[in-house]
Each structure stands twice: as structure tokens, then as C-alpha cells.
Write a structure and sequence with these properties.
about 0% helix; six-stranded antiparallel β-barrel; mainly beta; Thrombin, subunit H; single chain; 6 strands; globular; about 110 residues
């Protein structure tokens, strides 16, 4: 008998291109969203050990949909992440626009 599912929310299988944005300003890391829920995701990456423990996941064609992530586990080609709250940006100046937040709905993604 398979082990009981421990997740509190249902994950949805998909194939969706994304980018990992490290906090230190280093180069973006390509990845693919393999499955996701509103609280976490599984990402396919070429080198899981090159991914920092915490980062911002960029979604969508232009990266404006973002999720703050904390790595919970790693294998040879995948990582599991927990979504965190995005830091609140400072109030925008009159000439700036507000930064994207974590209100992006994972369920709205379709496989590519």
C-alpha cells in the first residue's frame, strides 16, 4: 500500500518554463515547474546544488509573476520548494510602479 499523502493541498502536474533568481544578483537559472500547488512546487533543474536555499521563482513570459521559495529537498535533477511570503516593497515613488507580489495563482498555469 502506498504511503498516505501528507500534503495539505493538491499538487497539479504540469510542464512550465520558469527562472530562478538568486538573491545575490548572480545569473538566472533555468528550470521547469513539474508540479505545483498554492503552497509549494517541484522544479526540474540541471544542477540542484547550484540553486541557493532561498530564491525568487520567476513565472510567466516576462517574469512579473513571482514566488518566494525555500528549498525543502534536492535530488540529482529536481528540487522541492515551499512558497514563502514575498517581502513587501517600499512604497513606490510617483515615477515608479509597484513591484510584483506573490498573488499569482498557480492554478492558472497551463502546461507548455
Amino acid at each position: 500500500m502506498p504511503p498516505a499523502e501528507k500534503r495539505k493541498t493538491t499538487r497539479r502536474a504540469l510542464r512550465y518554463p520558469a527562472m530562478i533568481e538568486p538573491d545575490d544578483g548572480s545569473a538566472l537559472i533555468r528550470c521547469e515547474l513539474c508540479d505545483a500547488s498554492q503552497v509549494g512546487a517541484q522544479l526540474h533543474v540541471d544542477d540542484p546544488n547550484s540553486v541557493p536555499d532561498e530564491f525568487t521563482l520567476l513565472l510567466g513570459y516576462d517574469g512579473t509573476a513571482r514566488r518566494r521559495c525555500k528549498v525543502k529537498w534536492r535530488t540529482d535533477c529536481e528540487i522541492g520548494v515551499e512558497f514563502r511570503k514575498m517581502p513587501q516593497p517600499a512604497a513606490p515613488r510617483r515615477t515608479e510602479t509597484a513591484s510584483p507580489d506573490d498573488s499569482f495563482d498557480i492554478d492558472s498555469l497551463s502546461s507548455r
